[in-house]
Design a protein that fits this description.
It is a single chain. The protein is of the alpha+beta class and about 210 residues long. Helices cover about 40% and strands about 30% of the residues. An 8-stranded antiparallel sheet has the order 4-5-3-2-6-7-1-8. β2 and β3 form a beta hairpin. The longest helix is centred in the C-terminal third of the chain and has 25 residues. The relative contact order is 0.16.
Length: about 210
C-alpha cells in the first residue's frame, strides 16, 4: 500500500498557522485530535523558549474556545484545546485517509505521513486544494502490508534505544537521553517505546505458544 509524506503550508490568517509563524522557533506536536462538523479538540505538546507568551496568545484567538494546561516542564507543555477551526482535520476527514499521529507543526508548516490506497490519497489532495491548503509531496513509496511488526517510527526508536544502550544491563542511557537523541518529547518517547515493546513481547509469546512441546 502506498505511503506518502506531505509537507503542508497552513494558509495565512488561520490561527494555528499565524501562531506557529509568530513563534517560528516553537514546535507544536499534535498527539491526538478529533473533529466534528463544527469544531475540533486536540492534544498537543508544545516546545518553545517563549512558552507562556505562546500559550497566552493562543488563548486570545476567537477560533480557540478552550485551552487546558495539563503539564508543564521548563520549555515544554502538554495542552488540550478546542477550536472552531480545525482546518487540517476538516481537510482530511472527508477523504477517508486516516491521519497518523503525532505530527509536527513548525513555522506554519505541518508534516504528515499517510498510508492509504492511491485513490484515497488523490481524494485527500482534492480536499486540501478545496480548503486552500498548499502542499508538496516529499515522497510516495510502497510499504509492506503484512509481516512488518513495527511502524517505521517505532522501529527507528527501538533501534536507537539499542544503539545508545537503553536496553543494556546496566543501562547506559536514560529515557530522557534517548528522547533528546531523537529530538522528541520524553512523554512521546515513552509512549511510542511502550507500544513497540508491547507488540514485540506479544509476538514473542504468540510464537512461543505455537511451538510444539518438547
Amino acid at each position: 500500500m502506498p505511503q506518502a509524506k506531505l509537507t503542508l503550508s497552513i494558509p495565512e490568517k488561520t490561527w494555528i498557522g499565524d501562531l506557529s509563524r509568530s513563534y517560528s522557533e516553537a514546535r507544536v506536536r499534535i498527539v491526538a485530535a478529533l473533529a466534528g462538523e463544527m469544531s475540533g479538540v486536540g492534544l498537543a505538546e508544545i516546545s518553545s523558549p517563549n512558552l507562556p507568551d505562546l500559550i497566552g496568545e493562543m488563548t486570545a484567538y476567537d477560533e480557540v474556545t478552550d485551552v487546558d494546561l495539563l503539564q508543564e516542564y521548563e520549555n515544554e507543555a502538554l495542552i488540550q484545546f478546542e477550536t472552531t477551526m480545525p482546518l487540517l482535520l476538516f481537510a482530511v476527514q472527508d477523504s477517508g485517509v486516516p491521519l497518523e499521529m503525532p505530527f509536527d507543526i513548525v513555522d506554519g508548516e505541518a508534516e504528515w505521513t499517510l498510508t492509504a490506497p492511491q485513490d484515497r490519497l488523490s481524494q485527500l489532495g482534492e480536499q486540501l486544494d478545496a480548503f486552500g491548503v498548499s502542499y508538496t509531496v516529499d515522497y510516495v513509496q510502497q510499504t509492506i502490508e503484512s509481516g512488518q511488526l513495527l511502524t517505521d517510527h517505532q522501529l527507528e526508536l527501538v533501534r536507537t534505544a539499542v544503539e545508545v544502550g537503553y536496553y543494556d544491563t546496566p543501562r547506559t542511557s536514560s529515557l530522557t537521553e534517548l528522547a533528546e537523541t531523537l529530538d522528541i518529547a520524553k512523554s512521546t518517547c515513552s509512549e511510542t517505546l511502550h507500544r513497540a515493546e508491547e507488540k514485540i513481547v506479544k509476538q514473542y509469546l504468540d510464537e512461543v505458544s505455537s511451538m510444539p512441546e518438547q
